[in-house]
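Fill in residues.
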């Protein structure tokens, strides 16, 4: 029996694992279960896919314990231009290598088991975790660090069309690299992809379709949500409907950084990118490709569609979490998300991180800073 089982090996799960391996568990006592072959696989694949060069977060947000670890790493490894801009946004390749080196230090990959979880149950003083191959592993404590990108959101018009639509979160399908490409979405993922494809000579034309004008924000929520400035008042709120509203209001959903906005405008001025603002009313397959009919009688035409419309709003892992919630009577807010203790414990020996912890951690729960906060709380309480 394992002392700890972590379900999910993305940024959140690996950050928690790093903390536990450093302070609370030996490598033979901890197991990480994830559908992919290694740490942060989806993060690395997705950021490479959209052509991201630098993170949105500043240099102190990474997966090591020491807040200045990444700065020291940049100097020690002599990276060229390791940080960008006034917020010292890290170069993506450097951040990824730093993360993997941090994991190597605690021999994290020794704890890895590839595959999907399809069930979990409570039995006496331990937890049973069921693997897709029919095997069973048992642990005294479990951390649910399930990501949201496994459930891409498809708008109604995309479900109904008689044409091929690719979602950027679909890790099995490569993105188009020729012809006329239409990207639908208005946030960082869509903007990075539009900028990247606009620079490819094999792509004949790139269009970006977004529902609203560009929302320019430095970060995905105000930095005040990382400390007492906003969290002191947030933690006094006992109504979980109100906490959900505060989270929704605080998140700069569908926003992009000023730097990226400048790059998109530059691509537009060079006629490498067409930018449309309006709702998609319908998509019609034509003799040559398709036409997206937008509000304001706009028409965006192309040979392929790539959706960058985010993830579904539901509970991550809901299919196998629902039976567990019913079996153990786990408390949930009206939005369906866990009500947990300050240590992120949902039930004795069952912890959450990432999106599942957001009603306790706040608006930053899903990002890198949120991963650090979740790891600190779980390790401290273990």
């Amino acid at each position: 029996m394992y002392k700890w089982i972590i379900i999910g090996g993305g940024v959140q799960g690996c950050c928690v694992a790093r903390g536990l391996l450093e302070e609370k568990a030996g490598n033979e006592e901890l197991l990480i279960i994830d559908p992919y072959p290694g740490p942060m696989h989806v993060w690395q694949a997705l950021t490479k896919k959209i052509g991201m060069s630098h993170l949105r977060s500043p240099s102190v947000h990474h997966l090591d314990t020491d807040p200045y670890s990444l700065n020291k790493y940049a100097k020690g490894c002599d990276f060229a231009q390791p940080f960008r801009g006034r917020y010292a946004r890290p170069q993506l390749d450097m951040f990824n290598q730093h993360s993997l080196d941090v994991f190597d230090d605690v021999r994290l990959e020794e704890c890895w088991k590839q595959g999907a979880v399809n069930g979990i149950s409570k039995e006496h003083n331990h937890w049973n975790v069921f693997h897709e191959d029919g095997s069973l592993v048992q642990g005294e404590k479990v951390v649910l660090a399930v990501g949201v990108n496994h459930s891409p959101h498809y708008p109604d018009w995309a479900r109904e069309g008689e044409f091929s639509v690719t979602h950027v979160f679909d890790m099995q399908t490569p993105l188009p690299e020729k012809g006329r490409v239409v990207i639908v979405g208005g946030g960082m993922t869509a903007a990075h992809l539009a900028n990247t494809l606009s620079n490819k000579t094999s792509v004949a034309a790139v269009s970006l379709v977004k529902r609203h004008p560009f929302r320019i924000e430095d970060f995905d929520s105000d930095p005040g949500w990382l400390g007492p400035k906003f969290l002191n008042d947030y933690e006094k709120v006992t109504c979980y409907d109100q906490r959900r509203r505060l989270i929704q209001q605080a998140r700069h959903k569908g926003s992009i950084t000023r730097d990226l906005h400048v790059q998109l405008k530059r691509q537009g001025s060079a006629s490498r990118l067409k930018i449309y603002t309006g709702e998609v009313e319908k998509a019609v397959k034509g003799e040559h490709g398709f036409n997206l009919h937008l509000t304001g009688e706009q028409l965006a035409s192309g040979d392929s569609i790539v959706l960058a419309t985010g993830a579904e709003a539901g509970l991550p892992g809901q299919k196998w979490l629902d039976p567990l919630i019913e079996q153990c009577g786990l408390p949930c807010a009206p939005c369906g998300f866990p009500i947990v203790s300050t240590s992120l414990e949902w039930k004795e020996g069952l912890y959450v991180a990432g999106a599942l912890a957001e009603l306790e951690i706040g608006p930053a729960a899903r990002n890198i800073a949120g991963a650090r906060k979740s790891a600190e709380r779980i390790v401290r309480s273990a």
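The chain has two domains: 2-150+312-381, 156-217+252-307.
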